[in-house]
């Protein structure tokens, strides 16, 4: 599984820790920036990771900014991206099952153990073949195609 990770300056520290954690677990992790804690604009990195999802360079993505909100909005502007800001493992599982999310957004303030739990649950949870979830995601995709 190929994972992508990106952040602005506020999420940089957590991104670096998660990257090490995921590499230790044997995942191939592509870093889409930022490369330092210097001030950086979250849209650049959210869009960059979103394009990697769209272009099938990665299977799943993780984006991080101060709140997780701005970078998730930027990421969702890329066609084919379904990014959800999550704050716990249950939300990570639910968005993967119900929304077929391919990216999660985290806030920089969470503890590392929380972020690891969220990421692990997001990665391990499988998409569901439930007709109602597929129908709802297809409605979003159809609108995106207009």
Structural commentary:
The protein is of the alpha/beta class and 146 residues long. The protein has a single domain (2-145), classed as Ribose 5-phosphate Isomerase B, Chain: A. The protein has helices at residues 12-24, 42-54, 69-76, 89-99, 112-124, 131-145, and strands spanning 2-7, 28-31, 60-65, 83-85, 103-107. It has a five-stranded parallel β-sheet with strand order 2-1-3-5-4, with helices on both faces. The longest helix has 15 residues, at 131-145.
Write the layout of secondary structure elements.
Elements: E1 2-7, H1 12-24, E2 28-31, H2 42-54, E3 60-65, H3 69-76, E4 83-85, H4 89-99, E5 103-107, H5 112-124, H6 131-145
Parallel strand pairs: 1-2, 1-3, 3-5, 4-5
Helix pairs in contact: 2-3, 4-5
Which architecture name does CATH use?
A: 3-Layer(aba) Sandwich
Choose one word for the global shape.
Answer: globular
User: What is the CA-based Rg, rounded?
Assistant: 14 Å
Strand-and-helix sequence, N→C? EHEHEHEHEHH
Q: What profile does the largest beta sheet have? A: 5 strands, parallel
Uncertain segments are none
Helix and strand composition category: alpha/beta
Cross-sheet strand order for the largest sheet? 2-1-3-5-4
Keywords:
146 residues, Ribose 5-phosphate Isomerase B, Chain: A, 6 helices
Summarize the model shown.
This protein has 146 residues and is α/β, with parallel strands linked by helices.
């Amino acid at each position: 599984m190929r994972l992508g990770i990106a952040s602005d300056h506020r999420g940089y520290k957590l991104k670096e820790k998660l990257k090490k954690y995921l590499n230790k677990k044997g995942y191939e992790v592509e870093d889409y920036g930022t490369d330092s804690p210097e001030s950086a604009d979250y849209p650049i990195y959210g869009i960059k990771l979103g394009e990697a999802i769209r272009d099938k360079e990665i299977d799943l993505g993780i984006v991080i900014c101060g709140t997780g909100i701005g970078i998730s909005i930027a990421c969702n502007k890329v066609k084919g991206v379904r990014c959800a800001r999550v704050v716990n493992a249950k939300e990570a599982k639910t968005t993967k099952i119900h929304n077929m999310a391919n990216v999660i957004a985290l806030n920089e303030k969470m503890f590392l153990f929380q972020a690891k739990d969220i990421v692990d649950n997001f990665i391990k949870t499988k998409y569901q073949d439930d007709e109602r979830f597929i129908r709802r995601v297809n409605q979003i995709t159809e609108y995106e195609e207009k």
